[in-house]
Each structure stands twice: as C-alpha cells, then as structure tokens.
C-alpha cells in the first residue's frame, strides 16, 4: 500500500519552533524594559534625594539672598612665614560674586568678579580685566572658586554613596561630579550631617582622581538667619603641613543691585 506522506506534524513543529523563540524574546524584552524603567526611576529618585541634601547644605554655608561678609585667610607652611590676607565678599543669588582684596595694603584694589562661572580679575595697573579659571590658586591652599563660587549644587551632580558615623554622629557621604571642565574641582566627596544638613568635611580631587586637599567646616554660629560655619580649614593632601584657615566675620544681608556685578562698574572701583 502506497502511503501519502503527511507534512502536517512537521509543519506544526516548524511553526512552534519559529513562534516560541519570538514569544520568548518578546517576553524577555518586556522584562528588561520593566527592569530598566524601575532602575532608572530608582536612580532618579536617589539623585533627587542627594540633590536636596546638597542644596540644603549649600544654603547653610551661604544664603541665596544678597549678602556681604569679610574673610581672613591665614596660610601656614613648614619653615615659612605665616601669610595673612583679607577679602570682602559680596554675593547675590549664588551666581554673582564680587571678591575685593582688603589686605595686605599692597594688593588693595584687586577685584574678582564671578558671573555664572565666568571669572574675571580687575587689577589697578591694567586697563582690561583678565579672565581666570576657578581652579587657579588664589592664596595658600585656596583656589579662586573657593571664594568666588561656593555653590556646589550649581556645579556638580550629586550621588549619595553611603551613610557613616564619625564620633557617634551620622553623616551622609555625597559624591559630587563636575558638570563640566570649567568648575573648581573634578570631584568632591562631601560629608553632610544626616540630622541637620550642616556640612562637616570635604575632599577635593583632581581630574586624575588624586586627592588634592581636604576641608573641615567648623565653629558654627547664627548669622544671616541660619547657623553657619564661620571657619574652614583646608589642608594640602600632597604636601604635609601646608594649610589655610578661612575665618568668616559677621555676615550682613544686603540688597545688591545687578550693576555691582558688571565689568564697567568694577573698572571704576579698581582704578
């Protein structure tokens, strides 16, 4: 008896073989999409929490409103004479800052102007201002940006790394990565009090990842409507024994007009 070959079972097998991988791939793709969405939401939420922490710590160091404060910087180095310099800072809205040198007498009239992240130096013996990087040394262990641009939230993307205890006090440790190459440091590790958002310590890193210096925020006292650090100790991490101590005087809240933060206005002041 001649049997007519039937391809039906084979066809079904082929169809199943072809369809099942497609279904499997589709299901796997959907699971991956859901996982990525959940991960992105979690990451975004974490970044938001870190940014809120950073913003609160920024506002404790300096207010958003216009203010004036005098700062004295004392630099000590092994086998060197102590160097003392004084500056007057006028700031408005965290993106407009004026730094006037008040001591020593020979340097009076020198002015730094920061608008956004553009920094200019006005010198009495020069007719035109000079553009400077925020990362350039101002004096001792202090960079230009340490005085002229103290707003971390505007310059860095924060990530909450961990929470740790120091002497029984809990601190959130934030990793701050520079938004671009124009900021003062490539990376900052920042310890913020978990209870009251007060800054405690900062580590400042170079582009290479090398630790440049550390800063300790000290002597908190009420001024400008907030309890703020009035002393910052910056120590060189590369050369032992080199440090600069910034001591802030009484903060005065001021209504500063925008014209104060213009080149034309400062040319008159520096000459």
Automatic annotation (TrEMBL):
<dbReference type="Pfam" id="PF17131">
    <property type="entry name" value="LolA_like"/>
</dbReference>
<feature type="domain" description="Uncharacterized protein TP-0789">
    <location>
        <begin position="93"/>
        <end position="268"/>
    </location>
</feature>
<dbReference type="InterPro" id="IPR011220">
    <property type="entry name" value="UCP028205"/>
</dbReference>
<protein>
    <recommendedName>
        <fullName>Uncharacterized protein TP-0789 domain-containing protein</fullName>
    </recommendedName>
</protein>
<feature type="signal peptide">
    <location>
        <begin position="1"/>
        <end position="40"/>
    </location>
</feature>
<keyword id="KW-0732">Signal</keyword>
<dbReference type="InterPro" id="IPR029046">
    <property type="entry name" value="LolA/LolB/LppX"/>
</dbReference>
<dbReference type="InterPro" id="IPR033399">
    <property type="entry name" value="TP_0789-like"/>
</dbReference>
